[in-house]
Amino acid sequence: MFIAELAEPGFGEYRLSTLRTGIMAGSPCPVEVMKQVIERMGMSGVTICYGMTETSPVSIQTRADDSIVARTATVGRVGPHLEIKIVDPETGRTSPARCVRGDIRSCSVTGKTR
What we know:
The protein is an alpha+beta fold and about 110 residues long. It has a domain at about 1-80: Rossmann fold (3-Layer(aba) Sandwich). It has helices spanning about 1-5, 30-40, 70-75; strands at about 25, 45-50, 60, 75-80, 80-85, 100, 105-110. The strands form 2 sheets. Strands 1-2-3-4 form a 4-stranded mixed β-sheet, with no helix packed on it. Strands 5-6-7 form a 3-stranded antiparallel β-sheet, with no helix packed on it. Helix 2 links the parallel strand 1 (about 25) and strand 2 (about 45-50). The longest helix has 11 residues, at about 30-40. One of its GO terms (biological process) is fatty acid metabolic process. InterPro entries: AMP-dep_synth/lig_dom. It comes from Nocardia jinanensis. GO terms for molecular function: medium-chain fatty acid-CoA ligase activity.
């Protein structure tokens, strides 16, 4: 969405002075896109979020004061009052399957992950 907005014909004519923050999610954000959103849209506080609909929906998020590298190379930190555990159901060892638990959510992925 941000890429489409930046490429919009006449983008420079829009007054965006009231923008300061926002959320990016759904796919990784390239460093250059993050830089353009900050510089051209004035959204210095934009963050990256990760989550699932079943987890209400954000479980992990970067902070507005994280570096551009941290905001584009990671999905951030686990949210307050949440636990995230990655477990292989067959061995009990750490694996790509994800489990998120918190005050209002409990979700797990079972079965083959590869």
